[in-house]
Amino acid sequence: MKELLKIVQKFSKQNICVIGDLMADYYIFGDTNRISPEAPVPVVLVKEEKMVPGGASNVAANVAALGGKVTIVGLIGEDLVGRKLMEELQQRKINIAGVIFNDKHPTIQKFRVIARGQQLVRYDKEIFKSISKISERRI
């Protein structure tokens, strides 16, 4: 444990660059006590929703939480979700100078529906296509 603490204490002196997929993770928490009449699936009454940085954004947030100076590099959509994600990263003192906004690639979103402590389903919003040569060069 002492060795681990020494490593964590060194984070504040490190400049770390995280490169990867920037995404928004949504958690939808609720309760369920009945099955839908339309299909054999639980009906979830939503109690709480939250969005947190996901993918490489999550890695950057974790490094920043440990005291590291983080710059993040990646592609994000020119959309409301992307703007909210950038606000989250800036609040966590993450340098977003390496983020490239692209109107052809909406921000990746992952949704998890959780009831009674159990994840019932995950659904994703994502476009699977290569980025442009211009965006590639900028990264």
Q: What proportion of the residues is helical, as a percent range?
A: 25-40%
Quaternary structure of the protein:
single chain
Question: Describe the biggest sheet?
Answer: 4 strands, mixed
Return the string of H and E elements: HEEEHEHEEEH
What order do the strands of the largest sheet run in, or round the barrel if closed? 3-2-6-7
CATH superfamily: Ribokinase
Distance between the termini: 37 Å
CATH class: Alpha Beta
Q: How many domains make up the 3D coordinates?
A: 1
List the uncertain runs.
Answer: none
Query: Rough shape?
Result: flat
Secondary structure category: alpha/beta
Kindly state the mean pLDDT as a whole number?
A: 92
- The name CATH uses for the topology is UDP-N-acetylmuramoyl-L-alanine:D-glutamate ligase
CATH architecture: 3-Layer(aba) Sandwich
Please tell me how large the radius of gyration is: 18 Å
Secondary structure: elements and pairs:
Layout lengths: L1 H9 L4 E5 L2 E14 L6 E14 H10 L3 E9 L2 H12 L3 E8 L5 E8 L2 E8 L7 H6 L1
